[in-house]
Amino acid sequence: MKLIAWDVDDTLNDLMRVWLEKWFLPRNRRCRAAYSDLRENPPHKALGISPDAYLRSYDEFRLSAVYDDILPSPEALAWFRRNGPKYRHLAVTAVPLAAAHRSAGWVYRHFGRWIRTFHVVPSPRKGQALPRYESTKAGFLKSIGGCGLFVDDSPRNVEQAAAAGLMSALVPRPWNAAAGTPEEFFRSLR
């Protein structure tokens, strides 16, 4: 049975949109950025803040009760309902280690019927020294012998996976060049 490796944030959910609309903008009323304006990830330039301010806000959100209320992408959930039993699945995410348990809980709460394995490649934070096993998702996937498909919203992660010889697919988001919409992506994913 083929293994599909799934990024979590902005692939299985709409984390960036929810963070922006429900967390960042209400606390930063002068900012007029819309989700569709986010042409880079991280989006600190479009928001007029420093990279550190962005990470601080994002991390606070991940540890808040608001994070627990994020719904899964309806398109991803529909795909899993139709196709989930045909494959094995693992989640591979790059979150700060302090929030990994929240991400894992979210995955198992919404996709645990299909996703049975969760792996974090810790997103580095200042002042935090951690052992580094792999520094990229592609490095992790290669270390376990690869997968049939890797799905992510980050062009860099998809490029690294392709360079490692892994088939990969890019979920359309405002900050990447993937054609179409997430709805079209999940409808066409086979």
Keywords:
190 residues; alpha/beta; 41% helix; 12% strand; globular
Brief rundown of the structure:
With 190 residues, the chain is of the alpha/beta class.
Note down, in words, how this protein is organized.
The protein has 190 residues and is α/β, with parallel strands linked by helices. It has a five-stranded parallel β-sheet with strand order 3-2-1-4-5, sandwiched between helices. The protein is globular and about 50 Å long. It has nine helices and five strands; from the N terminus they run βαααααβαβαβαβα. The mean pLDDT is 96. The chain has helices spanning 15-27, 44-47, 51-62, 65-68, 74-83, 100-111, 137-143, 155-163, 182-188; strands spanning 3-6, 88-93, 115-120, 149-152, 168-170.
State the end-to-end distance.
Answer: 14 Å
User: Low-confidence parts lasting 5 or more residues at pLDDT below 50?
Assistant: none
Using the CA coordinates, give the radius of gyration. Answer: 16 Å
Mean pLDDT: 96
Give the proportion of residues in helices.
40-55%
Oligomer: single chain
Kindly state the number of beta strands.
5
